[in-house]
Design a protein that fits this description.
The complex is a heterotrimer of chains A (about 425), B (about 325) and C (about 300). With about 425 residues, chain A is α/β, with parallel strands linked by helices. Chain A has helices spanning about 40-55, 70-80, 95-100, 105-110, 120-125, 150-155, 165-175, 225-235, 250, 270-280, 315-325, 330-335, 345-350, 360-365, 380-395, 405-425; strands at about 25-35, 60-70, 90, 130, 130-135, 135, 140-150, 185, 260-270, 285, 300, 305-310. Chain A has a five-stranded mixed β-sheet with strand order 2-1-3-12-6. In chain A, strands 7, 8, 9, 10 and 11 form a five-stranded mixed β-sheet that branches. In chain A, helix 15 (about 380-395) packs antiparallel against helix 16. Chain B has about 325 residues and is mainly alpha-helical. Chain B folds into two domains: about 1-50, no CATH class; about 70-315, MetI-like fold, CATH 1.10.3720. Chain B contains 14 helices and two strands. A two-stranded antiparallel ribbon of chain B has the order 1-2. In chain B, helix 1 (about 15-50) crosses helix 13 and helix 8 packs across helix 10. The longest helix of chain B is centred in the N-terminal third of the chain and has 35 residues, at about 15-50. Chain C folds into two domains: about 20-80; about 85-295, MetI-like (MetI-like fold, Orthogonal Bundle), CATH 1.10.3720.10. Chain C has helices at about 1-10, 20-55, 60, 75-85, 85-120, 125-135, 145-150, 160-165, 170-180, 185-195, 200-210, 210-230, 230-235, 245-255, 260-295. In chain C, helix 5 packs antiparallel against helix 12. The longest helix of chain C is centred in the last third of the chain and has 36 residues, at about 260-295. The chains are: A alpha/beta (about 425), B mainly alpha (about 325), C mainly alpha (about 300). At the B-C interface, helix 1, helix 4, helix 5, helix 6 and helix 8 of B face helix 1, helix 2, helix 5, helix 6 and helix 7 of C.
Chain lengths: ~425, ~325, ~300
């Protein structure tokens, strides 16, 4: 059997040990904690869920470890390399680990189970890569825009409404920016490469980064639409100076909206718990802006996923845990704790969230979501595309370069070469 | 007392007594010998073989011949970046290290009351753990809240976003490293104190001024120490990891401007689990360091002044 | 060479002296102290800033312009570090590793250095040369294969990879102690042998006590090296309860990367043990370096 792991708990929860009785199977479960998203309630929920699971499955024990999100992937990989991988873990990204053959294909388990029947389509699709289902959704979230009512009131401006466009967003952000008072119209993330990746703007700026199979950026990243999209994002920082400066993240993390000095910021359900707990100002949310008068909003939706290590010694027990956590009971517990948004519409409706003034904004996005976020489309995305786009941002903001077509063309060539190199290094057939 | 030994003297030539001594000798050095074989020789051979394979540590390695080396040397732009970053850093840091190290040592060598306190203060940064040292500098170099930029504004200078601006990452890292220059100053100081006082006295009598004394006595007599420090410095520079990892992240920060070679090896090996590729990278670096070290060693005869030279000149 | 030249061409002291020797002496002293103090300020500033930030409230930490003196002084930050992460464990772990490494190095370094310094055996010079050459080969060549080796024998996420190699001795320390032992007169050994002492007794009762200053250096270097090591714990340890102080600090940075006051409190606490060690050992350290520095 697997080497017995000490159950370890850090941060707010004191050290706990579970005495081994009847040699129960121990599932090692790693959780990535993320600043700006996780609160004390999140941590409490982790243990609550594990205990609820153990109550249902007396033969299985769950050994929990919480790790910071940064470097989490590397930690999992080195543990796997050493033959000490966690049986189950979750994070927002794993195609690279899946492609290495380190993730169990969960398709057979799902076929034998009914757990996935009620899931949002976006959440189900998210765990599919190269034809295998490597992950199961912990939750389902979508992106929207949060606004600071106090700032709008002070400026005498009406709150944003459904059906607005990205140009409205930009104009509103600019109008509300007051550099002397250190009031910013837009949050910091919009000014970065995240604007085109993990924000509701991703698909509403008239361009995309990678093809659906994740292998191609040529013709997409360097298209006129994407160049203009990028110009829009970066312009918030430099031309408009309406986005919060990068250094503000030093104090507030990515969610500079939390400072109370930011009028608009793209957020997702992930940030709602921290916002609810910490914000000392009045805020509301609105659907993301659409590209222009003639288009519809294209939702951006995402989930954290549970993964199973293909080298796990107790896959059945690991699956039981995953099945439980992604099933209705755990989903309800998490939702009622106010921590995660459920992965199935039924639970949203059961809780009346589809009618809730705040949650319904997200709900309407989720049920209409059709596109997979571009960073999930390739195992080489973070190796190739992300740094290339980051370079463009650095050259624009820190270097003051303004030849965006040229920079995007450079980045595209660089990213494509990297992708080609990555895919060509794979063994045949994968 | 001279106790020379012919290399590999035949065992049979040894007297009984000498054989006993030899056996004890081997026993005494056996901890190192065993460790050398297990922790050094075998890994290094394994690393060499691995460098011709593609392997993600799980499963069996695939033999790819020279592919890794070819890819690294021809198409790998991040390798080029890593080499460029590391060499640029070395080119600026090493001379500065020698200069500041000697400068500080000269300050510490003054015969003034309370000099011990200053020596302690100067050496202190060197023993601060590099993670802690890097962290405090990251904080001090913050573009908005950092104290470095605050001090610069006193002189009317608007400081940059040090660690976010690709052009300032290396200067930042050089600054962080120079903070610990007290470590090498102590060694220069030891070198200075070993220069006989009479030489300066004689020079003063001969009317040599301070500068002449420095360039004609101090520097030549310090050259063996400089040489020693330079050799250590070269090896150290190529092993730089922690400050870069803390200050610019595992990917080297904006435009990979802080992508030190060692960071790249770590990335390939432990972030993307390309063990064969990482081994090849490590071997290329080793070959490079050996060449550089040999060059420094070779060059030493032209500028390092040894005591024996002095006696020969008399 | 250069030095002899200045002897050959003596120049008369031609510059007119306007200052009396006392005045010149005073000016020199003032300049000396001024430069010493200026440099000291620059070098101590980061440590001061670490301390000052460590004692600030979050609001003060991000005050603009930065405040030099914390007000009020927030002593609780130090306690907060222990609440946020198992910092006490980190410190304890580091001490355990430091202890094990010191035992290992002392064991191996003394034996091996003695063997190289005072016993004759075929192949000694070539083995010594090999040992020296390992100093030239950067450790990262062995990083990957060592990781593989240790993972195969189940050593990952244990302290074994972090202290067992110490029992083979570090080449640098062996070299240092060997040089020191070489300077002890060989007559002492001969006398001991005549009195019927074995080689081990000679080593144990004669050479070892005389090498104490060099062994102090072994202790200090090992302490600082292990305490400050970051890369190896980073690679070998997964369980936060096993983390060392350096790794724990970086871990803390990942968890709380905006709480600079707490990060600085942690950094300060991580710096105190090596700083204290340095204060107490500085005489040996500086003396020892002056012995070793020139031998390089």
């Amino acid at each position: 059997m697997k080497k017995v792991f000490v159950l370890l708990v850090f941060l707010l929860v004191p050290f706990l040990g579970i005495a081994a009785q009847d040699n129960p199977i121990t599932i090692v479960n790693w959780w990535a904690t993320e600043r700006g998203r996780d609160t004390a309630a999140t941590r409490e929920l982790h243990f609550q869920l594990a205990r609820a699971f153990e109550a249902n499955h007396p033969n299985v024990q769950v050994a929990l470890s919480l790790y910071p999100n940064r470097g989490f992937g590397t930690r999992v990989l080195t543990a796997i390399a050493a033959g000490e991988g966690p049986d189950v873990w979750y994070q927002f990204y794993a195609p690279d680990i899946a492609a290495q053959g380190f993730l169990e294909d969960l398709t057979p388990y799902l076929e034998a189970s009914t757990v996935d029947e009620g899931w949002f389509e976006s959440a189900r699709r998210r765990g599919v890569y190269n034809g295998m289902t490597y992950g199961v959704p912990r939750d389902a979230v979508s992106g929207f825009i949060a606004y600071n009512m106090d700032i709008f009131d002070a400026a005498g401006l009406a709150y944003p409404e459904d059906g607005w466009t990205v140009e409205d967003y930009r104009a509103t952000a600019l109008a509300l920016t007051d550099a002397d008072a250190e009031i910013y119209g837009a949050g910091g993330i919009e000014g970065g490469e995240g604007c085109m990746m993990w924000s509701p703007f991703s698909f509403n700026l008239g361009g995309d980064l990678t093809s659906e199979d994740g292998r191609t950026v040529t013709g997409l990243m360097d298209s006129a639409g994407t160049v203009e999209a990028m110009r829009w994002c970066l312009g918030l920082v430099t031309e408009d100076q309406s986005a919060t400066p990068g250094s503000m993240a030093e104090q507030f993390g990515e969610v500079t909206f939390m400072s109370g000095d930011v009028a608009l910021q793209s957020l997702s359900d992930w940030e709602i718990p921290a916002l609810t707990e910490q914000a000392d100002f009045n805020w509301g949310v609105v659907a993301p802006p659409r590209f222009d008068e003639n288009s519809e909003v294209v939702p951006w939706a995402d989930s954290y996923m549970y993964y199973m290590w293909s080298g796990s010694d107790s896959k059945d027990a690991a699956w039981q845990l995953i099945e439980y956590l992604s099933g209705p009971e755990a989903q309800r517990i998490a939702a009622e704790a106010g921590v995660w948004a459920p992965n199935s519409p039924a639970v949203w409706e059961e809780l009346g969230w589809d009618q809730d003034p705040i949650k319904s904004v997200s709900y309407n996005q989720l049920i209409n979501s059709t596109l997979v976020p571009n960073y999930l489309r390739s195992q080489f995305f973070f190796d190739c595309v992300y740094p290339a786009l980051g370079d463009v941002r650095t050259r624009w903001i820190e270097g003051g370069e303004r030849e965006l077509e040229v920079m995007m063309a450079d980045a595209t060539v660089q990213a494509q070469a990297c992708l080609d190199d990555g895919y060509s290094s794979l063994p045949e057939g994968s | 007392m001279v106790r020379r030994f012919p290399l590999f003297a035949a065992w049979s030539d040894l007297s009984r007594e000498r054989r006993k001594e030899a056996i004890s000798g081997y026993l005494f050095i056996s901890p190192w010998l065993i460790g050398f074989i297990v922790f050094f020789l075998i890994p290094i051979i394994a690393s060499f073989i691995l460098s011709f394979t593609q392997w993600n540590i799980v499963g069996t390695p695939t033999w790819v011949g020279l592919d890794n080396y070819r890819d690294i040397l021809t198409t790998d732009t991040r390798f080029q970046k890593a080499v460029q970053v590391t060499l640029t850093y070395a080119a600026f840091y090493l001379p500065l290290e020698v200069l500041c190290g000697i400068g500080l040592a000269l300050l510490m060598n003054q015969k003034l009351r309370g000099i011990g306190v200053f020596r302690t203060l100067y050496y202190m940064p060197y023993v601060v753990p590099s993670v802690a040292a890097s962290l405090v500098w990251v904080w001090m170099l913050n573009g908005r809240y950092g104290v470095v930029n605050t001090v610069l504004t006193w002189f009317g200078v608007q400081g940059p976003n040090w660690l976010e601006n690709p052009g300032y990452i290396l200067p930042s890292l050089i600054m962080i490293a120079l903070w610990g220059v007290g470590g090498s100053s102590i060694i220069y100081l030891a070198g200075l104190q070993n220069i006989p006082e009479v030489m300066y006295e004689a020079a003063t009598v001969d009317g040599a001024n301070r500068f002449q004394q420095f360039f004609r006595i101090t520097l030549p007599l310090l050259s063996p120490t400089i040489f020693f420090q330079l050799v250590l410095g070269v090896i150290g520079v190529f092993q730089t990891f922690t400050p870069a990892f803390i200050a610019s992240g595992a990917n080297g920060g904006p435009l990979q401007s802080g992508l030190f070679y060692m960071l790249y090896v770590y990335n390939r090996g432990f972030v993307t689990l390309r063990m064969g590729y990482a081994s090849a990278l490590a071997w290329i670096l080793t070959a490079f360091i050996l060449v550089i070290t040999l060059m420094v060693l070779r060059s030493s005869r032209y500028w390092v002044y040894y005591e024996t030279d002095r006696s020969a000149n008399k | 060479m250069a030095v002899t030249k200045s002897y050959e061409q003596p120049r008369p002291a031609a510059r007119p002296m306007r200052l009396t020797p006392q005045q010149a002496d005073t000016i020199e002293k003032v300049l000396g102290y001024a430069s010493l103090i200026a440099v000291a300020i620059v070098l101590v500033l980061p440590l001061y800033w670490m301390l000052s930030t460590a004692l600030k409230t979050p609001e003060q930490t991000f005050a603009l312009p930065p405040e030099w003196i914390p007000n009020p002084i927030q002593w609780d930050n130090f306690a907060a570090v222990f609440r946020e992460v198992p910092f006490g464990r980190f410190i304890l772990n580091s001490f355990i590793l430091v202890g094990l490494n010191i035992i290992g190095e002392l064991f191996a370094v003394t034996l091996v250095a003695y063997g190289f310094a005072r016993l004759r055996f075929p192949g000694r010079s070539i083995l010594f040369l090999i040992m020296l050459s390992t100093l030239m080969i950067p450790y990262h060549v062995t990083l990957v294969p060592r990781f593989i080796l240790f993972s195969r024998i189940g050593w990952i996420n244990t302290y074994l990879p972090l202290f067992v190699p110490a029992f083979a001795g570090s080449s640098f320390l062996i070299f240092m102690v060997r040089q020191y032992m070489m300077s002890i007169p060989f007559d002492l050994d001969e006398a001991a042998y005549i009195d019927g002492a074995t080689r081990f007794q000679t080593f144990w009762y004669i050479i070892l006590p005389l090498s104490r200053p060099a062994l102090m250096l072994v202790v200090v270097f090992t302490f600082v090296g292990v305490w400050n090591d970051f890369l190896q714990p980073l690679i070998y340890l997964n369980d936060p309860n096993l983390f060392t102080v350096s790794l724990g600090l970086s871990f803390f940075q990942d968890v709380r990367d905006t709480n600079w006051n707490l990060l600085m409190a942690g950094s300060l606490m991580a710096s105190i043990p090596p700083l204290l060690l340095f204060f107490f050992a500085q005489r040996q350290l500086i003396g020892g370096i002056s012995v070793e520095g020139l031998k390089g």
